Amino acid sequence: WESRRDALVGSVVHLVPAMGDRKLAEAFIRATSGAPFDGGGSYDAERKIWGFVKEDCSTPDSTLFGSSPTSGSLFVVDSKTGNVVGLLRFQDDCPEHLTITLSHVIFSPKYAKGPHETEALFMAMAKLFALGYRRIAHYCDDGDFEGKKAAERYGFTFEGTSLKNSLIEMPDGSLVSQSTCAFAMLNSDWSAGGARNHLFKKVYGTKAFKKDAEARKQENEQDEWVRIGERLDAKAKEGKKEK
Q1: To the nearest whole percent, how much of the chain has pLDDT over 90?
Q2: β-pair type (84-94, 99-107)
Q3: Three-state secondary structure string covering 86-127
Q4: 32-51: average pLDDT
Q5: Is the pLDDT of residue 153 over 60?
Q6: Is the separation of the CB atoms in 131 and 93 below 8 Å?
Q7: Is the pLDDT of residue 20 over 70?
Q8: 21 dihedral zone (left: phi>0; alpha: psi -120 to 50; beta)
Q9: Helical ranges in the chain per DSSP H
Q10: Residue 89: exposure state from Cβ atoms within 10 A (0-12, 13-18, ≥19)
Q11: What is the pLDDT of residues 197-218, one digit of tens each?
């Protein structure tokens, strides 16, 4: 996170690493507070957004907005208005094994499930797989039905449920058992499995997908010619050594 601060820019949103940016954190807090936002009406923020989030996100000092060598957040900013409309958080970054966990996908209700959320996730996952990551894990509470549907909607594979794997303290101080559902997106799911193509068409449309497919085909052909050239050079060098 510290070495890759470049923002990811798409057609409807761009992603900005949080890195302790208090102004963006405050804007995100306002967008997810339940108060009317960007032309939308008021709503029950606890029920719509925060019911399954453990962190206290009422101030810019929340751990949700911080970063460490293994975790960090990306603010999702509307490219037209400049408003912060959501947040993606990653943790358990393990470059040694090329794995990482998508721990939070939080959006103002007006922008959830639509092109803003879809493009944000597409860009983030495309970047991670381009960097060589092999697995993006995602976990959610077994009672978080919207979270489970979202994971499947974006192509994550359900891997199972850990029953009663943790205890959650309720506002009244009581403890309740939590069961956690595990999902994952593998690099093979992203490329050969078709998850990338499915999300690309959802975000940018069929025409753009056809152009993208042609461009990727040309890139693959060029890469193949490069590999052929490298093999021929290697054989030529071997021939010179034998002589």
Answers
A1: 57
A2: antiparallel
A3: EEEEEEEEECCCCEEEEEEEEECHHHCCCHHHHHHHHHHHHH
A4: 90
A5: yes
A6: no
A7: yes
A8: beta
A9: 22-31, 45-48, 115-130, 145-153, 187-190, 195-242
A10: buried
A11: 999 998 999 888 888 777 776 6
Q: Which residue has the higher pLDDT, 236 or 181?
A: 181
Dihedral over Cα of 56, 60, 62, 67: its sign: positive
Tokens for 177, please give them.
Answer: 């058992």
In this prediction, residue 177 carries a pLDDT of: 86
Tell me the pLDDT of the chain averaged across its residues.
Answer: 87
What size, in residues, is the chain? 243
Q: Give all strands of the β-sheet with 157-169 in edge-to-edge order.
A: 8-9, 13-17, 72-78, 84-94, 99-107, 135-141, 175-186, 157-169
State how far the alpha carbon of 173 is from the alpha carbons of 47, 50, 143, 168, 176, in Å.
19, 18, 20, 9, 10
Closest CA to 117 of 147, 145, 146, 85: 85
